[in-house]
Here is the input.
Amino acid sequence: MSLADDQTLAVTETRDEDEIRRARAARMERVAKWALPLLIMALAIAGWAWIVVANEIPHYILPGPDRVWDSLVTDWAMLIDAAFLTGWITLAALTLAVVGGAGLAILFNQSKMLELSFYPYAVILQVTPVVSIAPLIFIYVDSKIAGMLLCAWLVAFFPVLSSTTLGLNSVDHNLRDLFRIYGATRWQRLRYLQLPSALPYFLGGLKIAGGLSLIGAVVAELVAGTGGIGSGLAFRIQEAGYRLNIARMFAALALVAAMGVFIFAALSVLSHLLLRKWHESALSRET
Amino acid sequence: MAVRHTDILPLGQRPPLLRLNHVDKIFGGEVVALKDMTLQVNQGDFISLLGPSGCGKSTALRVISDLMHPTRGRVEWEGDHVRGDLGVVFQEPTLMPWATVAQNVWLPFRLAGKSYGEVKDDVLEVLRLVGLEKFLNAYPRELSGGMKMRVSIARAIATNPRLILMDEPFAALDEITRHKLNNDLLKLKAKIGCTVIFVTHSVFESVFLSDRIVVMAARPGRVLTELEVDAPYPRGEEFRTSNEYAAHARRASMALREAMGEPA
Here is the structure.
């Protein structure tokens, strides 16, 4: 009896002041992680509403948050169609960026000659601002969709290419020796060693590419305008601007931002699911 | 192909396994990593390569495992040398972090084109030999340093290799774990009767484990002398505390000091 008592006592006593403080801090952080950004947003919206009212700013210059909300509700059908188009272009471009970027990385990794020949051009494509290439693309590419995909792809593929290349080359040298000793073929080395090693790097590049393909899609829409293929969010922003419908501009902008956040969150979840079992980045340390 | 057992004959009666014949390895035309190394390895030997850093121990292992070609001289295997004839344990456990323990041990089979189903029993058996049969589905990060090293050893012995190379496998472990793994390695060797070349810079480890100690010197890397440790196996804690052990350790220490260029 006394032994059991002692043990309970010991258990309660092991939570010393330090640990209680640490537990409290961890709890606070969990709440604050969500509460603080939401609070900042609420304050910003309230401040915005107050400025509009206090200065009697006309709605065609700066609409209040209420008008933006109204626009979001009344124009919802139009905006959501536009969001679907932009989202579709973004996802298609991201898919192509993954296929093209990872594919090129694997090709470059397998053939040093190919890498030496083409890598500089991949860099040139990346460092030339897409806004300046886009008008040219639409001169030569008839299909608006194809042109927009090409623009978005140009911006998005490079991070996938460079991070996957880095990953394929970051194989543990002892494991590489081990594969040689066991007489692994080039294909076996790629499949069982290099691709898994490159996965965390690839996923890092993918997160960046997700955001960039949205930017690419938006830029492409602004340059391409509409051509009977429906209109994306960026085009709606431009169009609402011409009509001085500033509230709709904000509403469309909010949707673009939400889309960007969604893409980032989705790719983060994907990355976590793929790496959680083994990679340091996905592990929570106890200490 | 279950793990097979080979009887170990006494020193002097063992059939030859491979021979390094006047091997030189020179890097960049000037750095002599290995000079005129001749070594005959016999079936069942437990050879330690003992020496200071830069004496060419690791270079010798790389030459034997065909990761490097000798500048001069040859490595001659007795009979046909096929892949899978060699098991290797590095200083780090060198496991694939994305693969489970079982998948890591499966690797040499997998690279030889065998499905997991075909070799499942062998994988289980070697894991049982190193005492990790309960950790089949664990990932390397869930294991301690000593356990990871056991997985690495299990992988090295899985294919019944004719020779196992170990490159300072326990150097990064703490003393207690190292002792335990030394004991277990000897038990394992007695069970399967394999041939081992073990690189170390610890006099005590080399005396405890091996029956032949090849003492090497640096600049240029070369074989200085060879000592026999004729104490019988199995060796355990009583050997570690015996006078015989102390005498062997003294001899090995003196040879090592000579190898380092200090007066004995």
The mean pLDDT of chain B is 92.
